[in-house]
Design brief:
about 475 residues, 15 helices, globular, seven-stranded mixed β-sheet, binds NADPH dihydro-nicotinamide-adenine-dinucleotide phosphate
């Protein structure tokens, strides 16, 4: 199926009529083409957004809220269609797309449709100076949203929903590897009555289409989720134009297991936090540290449970591990398994490609557990972003804290313990934007989301996102 750009409420071929093949990860086949858009397509999207901005920014909050909630309802009504498209495009199990990705995309619109009606600004009376200050929160204008391939619609809408709720118009680009659900979203927006030009979706390559959005002098803010190297590049391009930037980048998150935890709960959740979405979630706990006392027990149980997981076609209901997103990504992950061997890591399970009968050219890899000899090795320091985790034992709270923090990233961390004081000590000292205790990826959309160090700048979620997508203007009146 071929897809088109969505500009000013209509679907268009790219101006230069250049196209990129779209591969299905489950069987490696080309199943459609997507626009290879240029600067001119981005400019057309910008013009549509700019012309609609005066109207949209003055639309009442109730009306904006109503439209966002309508988009949410239509996504829910089209759950099966969107889940099938997402699974085919990305390789993720259809069960995951149905239970998590698409419902969450719907929640993003519903949440920000409601949040905008509660978004208050501050006022201060300057006692003794006979003045009062109040702060306006004004939409920025035309903003750019660029998202990655791992949770395509989930992360795309996590940006778009707050941007339009706050009264901005958007030029957005999904990953070229997984454009399908973003394409379908255009139809839903029209059906929901979103005025044309509020949301414009331009498909294409990061280095050209994405770059054109970042370089555009009048797109005043960029909300980006993706790799750390791309984030650094975008920051360099955007800085001389003083754009507002929100960067959600890579992670190498520690999963720290103490002997006093609820063992079964920890084991079940650790399987999920290691391999959900083939380990291609920025929040996956890719470095597992286990207290020495229970290390051997954990190793045995964990590996046995991993071996029982089914790697298979994403459309089969009992598939636990689907396909990796692309051939180049599969090769990158395999290369890390080789690096682990060179670094004297022990492959406890997995490590090989899987041939799924009938889909021999798909990008399947066994879930892989590597016992590492030390925490400094590359597989323990670099983001692999695949179905690969490292494990190693630790003796004390201090040593594990040091190891947990000794990476360039700082997105999330998980701690398993029933000791309250330890929980408090560790949560305070872990260098991460998000700490989970006795759980993983439990999300409340009101909470701030984002990372420290090389995992990003700024926070998304709740009012943080609405603050990002607005400019604060203080007005001081002397009476
Ligand atoms: P990339 O950085 O390669 O790409 C992300 C997006 O940026 C894609 O749409 C890409 O387009 C685009 N892009 C690439 N180059 C440029 C450029 N020069 N200018 C503008 N846009 C550009 O990341 P991946 O898609 O590979 O995603 C995986 C990464 O995302 C991992 O590092 C992961 O940790 C991170 N991530 C972070 C999250 C967080 O919340 N912190 C959440 C999810 C993922 P195209 O794909 O078409 O090249």
């Amino acid at each position: 199926m071929n897809i088109q750009n969505y500009i000013n409420g209509k679907f268009h071929n790219p101006i230069e009529n250049n196209w990129i093949d779209n591969h299905c990860p489950a069987n490696g086949e080309v199943y459609g083409q997507i626009p290879n858009s240029t600067k001119v397509d981005v400019e057309n999207a910008y013009i549509a957004a700019k012309s609609t901005f005066p109207l949209w920014s003055q639309t009442t909050l109730e009306e904006r809220s109503r439209i966002l909630i309508r988009i949410s309802e239509l996504l829910e009504a089209n759950l099966d269609r969107f889940a099938a498209a997402e699974s085919k495009d990305n390789g993720k199990p259809i069960s995951l797309a149905k239970a998590v990705d698409i419902p969450r995309a719907a929640s993003n619109f519903r949440f920000f449709g409601n949040a905008i009606t509660q978004f208050a600004s501050e006022s201060h009376e300057s006692i003794g100076q006979q003045a009062v200050n109040y702060t306006l929160r004004q939409p920025i204008g035309v903003v750019g949203c660029i998202s990655p391939w791992n949770l395509p619609l989930y992360l795309f809408t996590w940006k778009i929903a707050p941007a339009i709720a706050a009264g901005n118009c958007v030029v957005a680009k999904p990953s070229e590897v997984t454009p399908m659900s973003a394409y379908l979203l255009g139809e839903i927006c029209n059906e929901a009555g979103l005025p044309k030009g509020v949301l414009n979706i331009v498909h294409g390559l990061g280095g050209s289409t994405g770059q054109a959005i970042v370089e555009h002098p009048d797109i005043k803010a960029i909300s980006f989720t993706g790799g750390t190297a791309t984030g650094a590049h975008i920051a360099r391009v955007a800085a001389p134009m003083f754009k507002k930037l929100s960067l959600e980048l890579g992670g190498k998150n520690p999963n720290i297991i103490f002997a006093d935890c609820d063992y079964e709960d920890m084991l079940n959740t650790t399987i999920r936090s290691s391999f959900a979405n083939q380990g291609q979630i920025c929040l996956c706990g890719s470095r597992i540290f286990v207290e020495e006392k229970i290390y051997e027990q954990f190793k045995t149980d964990f590996v046995a449970r991993i071996k029982a997981l089914k790697t298979g076609h994403p459309s089969e209901a009992d598939t636990n591990i689907g396909a990796l997103v692309s051939k180049p990504h599969l090769e990158k992950v395999k290369e890390y398994i080789n690096i682990a061997k060179e670094e004297n890591g022990i492959i406890l399970c997995g490590g090989n490609e899987v041939t799924v009968a009938g889909y021999e050219n798909g990008y399947y890899l066994e879930p892989t557990v590597i016992e590492v000899p030390n925490d400094d090795c590359r597989v323990n320091q670099e983001e692999i972003f695949g179905p690969v985790v490292t494990i190693m034992p630790f003796k004390t709270e201090d040593t594990v804290l040091q190891m947990a923090n000794k990476v360039k990233y700082g997105l999330s961390a998980t701690i398993w313990t029933n000791d309250l004081k330890r929980t408090m000590r560790m949560s305070n000292q872990l260098q991460a934007g998000i700490v989970w205790v006795n759980t993983w990826m439990m999300r409340d959309l009101r909470t701030p989301f984002g990372g420290v160090k090389a995992s990003g700048v700024g926070r998304e979620g709740g009012f943080e996102a609405l603050r990002f997508f607005t400019e604060a203007k203080n007005v001081c009146i002397k009476y």
